[in-house]
Amino acid sequence: MDTLVLPGYYVRQIHEQIKLLGLETESWLQSYRLSIQQLSEPYLELSLPAFKDMVRSIVHLTGEPGVGLLVGSKLLANTHGILGYAALSSSTLRQVVDLFERFMVLRTTLVRMEHFEDATAYHIVFKENVPLDDVRGPVMDAVVLAIRNVLGFITMNQCPVDQVVFSNTRGNHPLALSLFGCPVSYGAGWDGFIIQRQWLDCPLTMSDPRTFAEAEALCGRELKQMEGRSSLAGRVRQLLFTHQSQFPKLEVVAHHMLMTHRTLHRRLMEEGTSYHQILDEVRHTLAVEHLQRQHLSIKEIAFTLGYGEPANFRRAFKRWEGLSPQEYQQQYAGEPPLER
After folding, report:
1. Pairing label, strands 191-196, 184-186
2. pLDDT tens figures, 204-247
3. Topology of the domain comprising 3-199
4. Is residue 55 a contact partner of residue 139, using CB atoms and an 8 Å limit?
5. DSSP secondary-structure letter at 38?
6. pTM of the entire structure?
């Protein structure tokens, strides 16, 4: 069972949203084996099923589909610990993006941040590290808005975000437009926002290279401590995500972990999983991402995920989702997938 690490402050914001309704929150917290005192702790550990149930419950209790945005609106630049402190001292937006790509795991193990760029635009993309399923919408709402808040603060609310996009097809458009302050679109196949490249290397007013170097070093130290505490399965999963263009074999993964492949297999078994099970989970997550974005054909996705034959990929996807890749893409997009 996956264990998530979340700052207590983040969970406290979910708790506060329920409290605003005048509802009793102590029993709600107890249902997740948490107490009000624990919400002041630096980090909390929750199982993935418990976290998903927590998000579903707040959507149900508030009756607000945009509740993720309400939580994200409270996650300001000074709420992200040493990572936020480093961001405040950064020299450019490019440096901030690089910082969050490397160290976002210090704040949440749910999602990761990546980027790609073309001739004019810089796309900041958020991807799930674990299958979020029906809670992906609220989670991405909160995460994207939280990072947008950081960029807005360090640029004195002059952050040149051209457009925010979400993969989910249903959203709270008026609320999102008000909070993001720029056009917001849904059903885009990815989650994140777009910035014009010309702004990436403009100097930031609050830049402090010495403070940034110190904070960056602290982030690096904290990451090493986290990696030492994290499960072996989590480290293997992260390695596969970072080598998704060509998944390393068990022997190569074992070499990265400084152990023999037999030892790696035995220790993963002790954690209730295996290399092949983790690889299957990573392929599942990436397959869903590719199909939602519709940027590759079914055959290309199969090749990207390491399946020799598209038929093998189709069988695997049917096992994961109960639908064929084509059926999933049609259901998700509401229209026939792009044929190449």
Report:
1. unpaired
2. 988 999 999 999 998 988 887 776 656 788 788 878 887 777 89
3. H-NOX domain (3.90.1520)
4. yes
5. G
6. 0.69
